[in-house]
Amino acid sequence: MTLSNRQIADIFDTVADILQLKGEIIHRVLSYRRAAESIRELPRDLSAIAAEDKLTEIPGIGDTLGDKIKEMLTTGKLGLYERLITEIPVGVVEIMRINGVGPKKAQLFWKELNITTVQGLEQAARAGKLRDLSGMGVKSEQKVIEGIEALSRRQVERVPLGTALPAAESILGVLRALPQCLQATVAGSVRRARPTIGDIDLLVAVREMSDSPAIMQIFVTLPNVARILGQGDTKSSVELLNGLQVDLRVLPQERWGTALQYFTGSQAHNIKTREIALAKGFSLNEHALSPVDSNGTILEDAPKLLCETEEQVYHHLGLQWIPPELREDSGEIERARDQTLPRLITLDDIHADLHMHTTWSDGKHTIREMAEAARERGRKFIVITDHSRSLGVANGLSIERLLEQQNEVRRVDQALNGSIRVFHGTEMDINADGSLDYPDEILVQLDFVIASLHMSLRQERDQITLRLLNAIRNPHVDLIGHPRAQMLPNREPVDADMDVVFTAAQQTGIALEINANPARLDLEAQYARRALDLGILLAINTDAHTIEQMDLMNYGVMTARRGWVTPDHVLNTWSLERFTTWMTQRGQ
DNA sequence: GCCGTTTTCGGCCCGACTGTTTTCAGTCG
């Protein structure tokens, strides 16, 4: 029983927590955290990478952590971790998850009052026992109580991008309407389009900082604010009723570029850009590029470089402007230095949507309604892909109804008279036993075939992988829909051997989907990037069950951009002629 | 513990805010 990437990352994170509690030097702690983060973003199994002896090629993994990974892969445990958890009660680590409580306070509560659980801490706080500890007071005690309440209120650690982005836009709408606001935007992980979001970062530019307090006051009194976490002239934080934290920073217009760059992150990307700045004799922060001496001390008399745009910031560093979705320190800085960043796909490149549902299965609109709505959105062709017969809960189509539907699709296609082309396909289930839900003699009659996993998603790795392989190797299947079957923020992807899946896809020329629904975003970016590296084609589809859901395409595009995807590799950027040629050739 | 267009040793991003402080420590991002 070998450990998964996720389990190994979790162990490293817990090791970091405990080391921090023990007062270990922060850089050693951060090494474990960086390693955990890096491992979570891997598109391959650590065991496969270890077999190739390439663990230390992973960013943040050196000889020591490489050996620790090997230890976990071979023995299923980590000696260091086993030792550490005997030294620190697990509840104390849990206490550090309370907002406002870090390692020092957790340590204090434990050592002074023998508190080892969140529950115990809450009781002590309510009994007024914390206020007399050194460095604590009545206010701090109250903050602990509020932090614990917020922790229990919070349903999930992270929310889907599809929840966070509209929430951010809604607040930005209010702020942009203020006369003091010159411009406003979202930064942080929302701007980088991470599939799930921990908190929202907003920026507002003003002419004079004296305009700031009024803006802050509006912000912290928005109707959906549950509590104010902090309020200053340049920075305020609130928690919304749904538990989401929102940070707002106000800054002068002439510093917009440095601030936007700084607050967009990621942290790893910023560390790199700051190092580059230092190498060029500047300290880079959210305010400016400041000249430094050889010790790195800022020269107060020397003029600072202010940047109103991000392009200026990157230019001063000798870099191409880097799209936010790439800013994860995963090779983008090196490419920007060589001026060889790819031309990423944009929403304008998308001409088609190859995956949508209608009233024939579990969709809410008819074939004609979906086609006309797609046409209004500028699509040149679409494929109707309702569910197949096994998916009873979604009113999947029997073979008879499928063929009947084909006639209807042909009628609609003709009626629309070339203003948009409508093709007939299916989203066919890959059954639990690995069989496909329609026989080949039916599939061959369809224009386009998607095969997807919907049921028995918790099967063993071998069986899940076999199911995907059966679909990939069927010459009539054109696309694997949402290949990992994850649901954000909480349903884990299937446990498939993605190395094997990718190899098979590479051999057969099948395409893989980036499902644009924000509850899926599957393939995720790191897998999309690997697919691209292997020359595997992709398609970005909305999987729309309603007309409105056709507007979610942008989430798929953002995910693709995070995966360095260029338009040419994506089926639905192609011309109608190129697409039909590809479809026809595949069916042979 | 990682890492190298200053370095295989000695750095490692740095500022805002809060609450407790008589000048700063803790937390966060």
Key terms:
588 residues, alpha/beta, DNA polymerase, domain 1, Beta Polymerase, domain 2, 5 domains, seven-stranded parallel β-sheet, five-stranded mixed β-sheet, 24 helices, 43% helix, DNA-binding
What is the topology?
Blueprint: H1 5-21, H2 26-40, H3 46-51, H4 63-75, H5 79-87, H6 90-95, H7 103-113, H8 118-126, H9 138-153, E1 159-160, H10 161-176, E2 183-186, H11 188-191, E3 196-197, E4 199-206, H12 212-220, E5 225-231, E6 235-240, E7 245-252, H13 256-264, H14 267-279, E8 282-284, E9 289-291, H15 310-316, H16 332-337, E10 352-353, H17 367-376, E11 381-387, H18 399-415, E12 421-429, H19 440-443, E13 448-452, H20 461-473, E14 479-481, H21 498-508, E15 511-515, H22 525-533, E16 538-541, H23 553-562, H24 576-587
Parallel strand pairs: 4-7, 10-11, 11-12, 12-13, 13-14, 14-15, 15-16
Antiparallel strand pairs: 1-3, 2-4, 5-6, 6-7, 8-9
Helix pairs in contact: 1-2, 1-5, 8-9, 13-15, 20-21, 22-23
The chain binds one DNA strand of 29 nucleotides through α2, α4, α7, α9 and β5.
